[in-house]
Amino acid sequence: MDYNLYNTIKVLKKLAGSGNTSYISSGELAKDLGVSQQTASRFIIELNEKKYIERTLQNRKQKITLLEPSIDLLYSELNQLNSILEMHQEFNLKGEIKSGMGEGKYYISQEGYMAQFREKLGISPYPGTLNIKIYPEYENILRRIRSADGIHIYGFKDKERTFGGVKCFPGRIDGTNAWLIFPERSSYTDIVEIISDKFLRNDLKLQDGDELNVRVTLDH
Question: What kind and span of H or E run contains 30?
């Protein structure tokens, strides 16, 4: 992304504080960016056109909301800086076990995925996923994980349909190795899918509603 647009996103996030929405005029934004009002307006228009922000006018000011691509971009930059500085990146995620729609078994069982899981993760996953709804207080950590590179599993096609790529992150649940998987082209969700070479629900005696702690590392 163009540096000026990225810097505008950073300034807007700083103004928004803990939320993602700020109220500011083009003149005020221009002052914060150190550019002309015309240039600041151009940056905002371009970010809006590229779906990085949502912009509406309210009483001589603009209501600007940072959208998911902007937040992902900031977390991606944070991860890159930590990697460059060789900072150890390991996090806890907590949530509640939820039943899925049964689609995990179908997707995980596809040979196009299984072959790559065996090669890149070193496991033949149990056919299915363990789904966890992450608590709101862990949202920032979840976003940081989702925005990292992970281990890439390529998408593929069979005779009937196309399967998208996913990225995987190593984790541990009560000492048991597992992998968090995220579809590469999906909107933000607080549901995390986990795969393992073990039947986690059975081996760890887990039920819907149980609280679960997952230790995740971004170092690989």
Answer: helix 26-33
